[in-house]
Amino acid sequence: MGKILPTVLDTKYESIFAKERSLAKAVTSAVIESKPITVWEIMIPILFLLSFLRFKRTREIFTLNFLFTKKLALEAAFDMIKKGMSKEVVIKRIKEKTSNILAQDNKGIYSIKIRQRQLKEINLLIDHYYKLLNAEGKSYASMLKNAYQTHERYVTFLGQLGRAEKEVNRAAAQTVRTTSASKIVSKMEETTAKIRTSEAERIFSSMG
Rounded distance, CA 178 to CA 4, Å? Predict the structure, then answer.
């Protein structure tokens, strides 16, 4: 049985997700910095291996957490186009999924407030991804330029997204209530904004 070739929509989906994952990894690297190797890890290899595996897993989990709302929104926008689902239907599906996660949380980590803020962010992201997936071009840069047309329009969206993400981060920091939470949030937001701003200038400055 032959392998099914990806459609243009599939290619667009992968381009967008790859870009979001790249951003997530960059933010993760900025927040979770590498630790210097100790003398004991040099002398006893198994200690280095265990330390490395813990460090790697921490980074992977942080990256997945950063991508949580993005992936839900991108899948929703994809299904709106490919399966003809309405925004109301995909939003309902996301509400059900996040509600189930909330119900299963017995540690009090995923709060009602965090979920409410995430739903606002997801609602904004669905419109963004829907616009990108419907735009001409297969690469992320071409989709972005054709979807927003001007640097100013895209920057306006980034401002809206940044504010929505900050509300989620504030709710999370209030729930966790650790001394390091505010520092982590600040580093996340600073790195995210820097990367997005730089990328926007690079992409739109190349418009002919």
Answer: 49
Residue 2 covered by a domain: no
What is the CA 32 to chain-centroid distance, rounded? 16
What is the sign, positive or negative, of the torsion defined by CA atoms of 98, 99, 102, 103?
A: negative
Q: Is residue 3 included in any domain, yes or no?
A: no
User: Would 97 be classed as within a structural domain?
Assistant: yes
Enter the tokens of residue 113: 């407030």
Do 20 and 67 meet the contact criterion of CB atoms below 8 Å apart?
A: yes
Q: Tell me the three state secondary structure of residue 77.
A: helix
83: nearest Cα among 4, 6, 9, 18 = 9
Express each pLDDT in 22-41 by its tens digit.
999 888 888 776 565 454 44
Question: Looking at residue 206, what is its pLDDT?
Answer: 73
Query: Collapsing DSSP states into helix, strand and coil, what is residue 159?
Result: helix
Answer yes or no: is 167 within a domain. Answer: yes
At what angle are helices 8-31 and 45-82 packed, to 10 degrees?
A: 140
Q: What is the pTM of this model?
A: 0.85
Handedness of CA 150, 152, 155, 161 (dihedral sign): negative
Q: What is the pLDDT of residues 82-125, one digit of tens each?
A: 999 999 999 999 999 999 988 887 676 788 898 999 999 999 99
Domain that holds residue 149: 8-205
